[in-house]
Each structure stands twice: as structure tokens, then as C-alpha cells.
């Protein structure tokens, strides 16, 4: 009779790492690093200035980091148990069709918000970069320094081809390039720090000494907008399965 009984001890437990991925380890590292250090880091200084040091450290950094870590743990745990590595399928397995729709809608809204922040940076910063390299006047009407045209050009020539890729793992090359650019600008800022005095010398009309202060705590209506931006600035959950 023993041979007809199921042997639970002999059954191997399924783990997330048992599934063979389609992306190399290096590409995965680039994608995850780019998700962590994306455009959200540009808003951290503004967030700290509006919320104050206490709320910024307690909520924007600590709480969001803990929630992100726990959500990633749940995703990996559940995907390892059921053998599913797609957000929509996990939602369908847990809650049926409503769960699948909720996961799809959440991913779509998150990607729209992240993409909007990137495109806004392209519109506001790229014209200044072109003007600097070409030594153009600030008030020029050329099309290649118009932010509206540059957003369309970047969307069609760069974003659209990357979005049409079959495997998201190939985005690792673009992520590696963006991380290289971040490293270059980081080194440039550190290098300039030792050349430019901070704070600036007192001069007539110089307000850096009075304005360059961060309050310990603030009670402003803008705190609500800043708190809502915190999850997008500090999470990398959408890139876990890529």
C-alpha cells in the first residue's frame, strides 16, 4: 500500500530560480539598476525641500523602501510557487479576471507616469544641451531646439523601436548606456564641486545663503503632491520579472 501513497517529502518544491530566464545576468543588472536610478531621482531634492527632513526620511525613503522590498518578496515568492512570471497571469491566478485587469491597468498607469517624466526631461533639457554645444542664442526659433519637436523625434526614433522589441532583456544595452551617462554626470558634478565654492561668495543680489536651507518639517498643501510622487521615485517593482 505504501507504493500507492503519495510521498510528499520526495516532491521537489518549486523555486523562482528554477525557471530559465531569457536574459543574461548582466542585462538584468542593467535593467534593474536603471529602474532604481531612473528619472525619479531628479525629484528627490524637490521632495525633500517640500516635505522637510523628518517626513522625507521617515516616509519617502524608509517607508517606500520597506514597501518595495516586501512587495518584491511577495512577487518572487508567489511566482516561484505557481510557476508564473507575468504580472497579469499572477493577478488572474489570485483573483480571476478582475485581478488580471487590475494588474494590467496598474502597470499601464505606472508606465504612463514614468514615460511622461522622461519625456518632460527631454522637452526641457535637450534644447538647452543643443544650444550649449552649438553656441546658439537662447531665443532662437530653429526647429531642432524646440522641445515639442524633440519630444516627437525622440519618441519615434528611440522609444518606439525599443518598445517594439520582443524580449525586454535587450533593453539592457540602453540601460547600460543610460547608467554610463549617469556616472559621467555624477563625476562631473563631484569634480565641479571642488572648483565652485559652496555657498557662493556674498555678492549684491545673491540669495543662495538665505534660500538654500531645508526645513526640518513642513506643513504645506504641496506635501500631498510630493507624497504621491514618492512610490514612483523609489520603486523598481515593475522591472523584477525582466
UniProtKB/TrEMBL annotation:
InterPro entries: AA_transpt_TM (IPR013057)
Topology of the protein relative to the lipid bilayer: Multi-pass membrane protein
Residue stretches making up the Amino acid transporter transmembrane domain: 22-191
Transmembrane segments: 25-48, 55-76, 101-122, 143-164, 170-191
Record-linked Pfam families: Aa_trans (PF01490)
Localization per record: Membrane
Sorted UniProt keywords: Membrane, Transmembrane, Transmembrane helix
CC terms in the record's Gene Ontology section: plasma membrane
Top-level taxonomic group: Eukaryota
Gene Ontology biological process terms, A to Z: histidine transport
GO function terms (MF aspect): L-asparagine transmembrane transporter activity; L-glutamine transmembrane transporter activity; L-histidine transmembrane transporter activity
Protein name, UniProt field: S38A3 protein
Provenance organism: Thalassarche chlororhynchos (Atlantic yellow-nosed albatross)
Amino acid at each position: 500500500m505504501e507504493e500507492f501513497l503519495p510521498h510528499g517529502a520526495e516532491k521537489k518544491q518549486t523555486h523562482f530560480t528554477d525557471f530559465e530566464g531569457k536574459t543574461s545576468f548582466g542585462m538584468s543588472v542593467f535593467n534593474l539598476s536603471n529602474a532604481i536610478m531612473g528619472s525619479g531621482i531628479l525629484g528627490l531634492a524637490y521632495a525633500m525641500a517640500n516635505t522637510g527632513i523628518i517626513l522625507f526620511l521617515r516616509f519617502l525613503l524608509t517607508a517606500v523602501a520597506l514597501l518595495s522590498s516586501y512587495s518584491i518578496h511577495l512577487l518572487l515568492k508567489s511566482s516561484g510557487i505557481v510557476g508564473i512570471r507575468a504580472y497579469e497571469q499572477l493577478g488572474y491566478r489570485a483573483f480571476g479576471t478582475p485581478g488580471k485587469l487590475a494588474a494590467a491597468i496598474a502597470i499601464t498607469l505606472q508606465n504612463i507616469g514614468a514615460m511622461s517624466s522622461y519625456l518632460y526631461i527631454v522637452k526641457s533639457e535637450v534644447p538647452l544641451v543643443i544650444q550649449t554645444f552649438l553656441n546658439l542664442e537662447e531665443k532662437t526659433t530653429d526647429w531642432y531646439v524646440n522641445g515639442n519637436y524633440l519630444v516627437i523625434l525622440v519618441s519615434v526614433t528611440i522609444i518606439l523601436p525599443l518598445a517594439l522589441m520582443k524580449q525586454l532583456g535587450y533593453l539592457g544595452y540602453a540601460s547600460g548606456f543610460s547608467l554610463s551617462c549617469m556616472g559621467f554626470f555624477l563625476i562631473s558634478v563631484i569634480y565641479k564641486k571642488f572648483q565652485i565654492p559652496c555657498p557662493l561668495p556674498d555678492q549684491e543680489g545673491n540669495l543662495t545663503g538665505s534660500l538654500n536651507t531645508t526645513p526640518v518639517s513642513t506643513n504645506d498643501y504641496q506635501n500631498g503632491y510630493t507624497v504621491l510622487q514618492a512610490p514612483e521615485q523609489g520603486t523598481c517593482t515593475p522591472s523584477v520579472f525582466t
